[in-house]
Amino acid sequence: MLRSIKNVVVWVSVLVFTFSIAGCEGKMAAKNCMQQTKEAVCDQKLAMTPPMGWNSWNGLGKEVSEELIKETADSMVSTGLKDAGFTYIVIDDYWHGGRDSVTGLLYPDPKRFPSGMKALADYVHSRGLKFGIYSDAGTQTCGEQPGSYGYEEKDAKLFAEWGVDYLKYDYCFCTDYASENNDYKMAIDRYKKMGDALKATGRPIIFSICEWGPRSPWLWGKEVGGNLWRTSYDVYDVWDKPRNDISPIGILTSMDVAANLERFAGPGGWNDPDMLVVGLNNKGNIKGGGCNEIEYRTQMSMWCMLAAPLMIGCDIRKMDETTKTILLNKDVIAIDQDALGKQGFRVYRKDGLEAFKKPLSGNRVAIAFLNRNSTDNKITASYKDLELDPEISYSVYDVWKHTALGQANGTLSADLKPHECQVFVLSPSESK
Ligand code: GAL
Question: Which atom of ligand 1 is nearest to the CA of 143?
Answer without folding.
Answer: 12
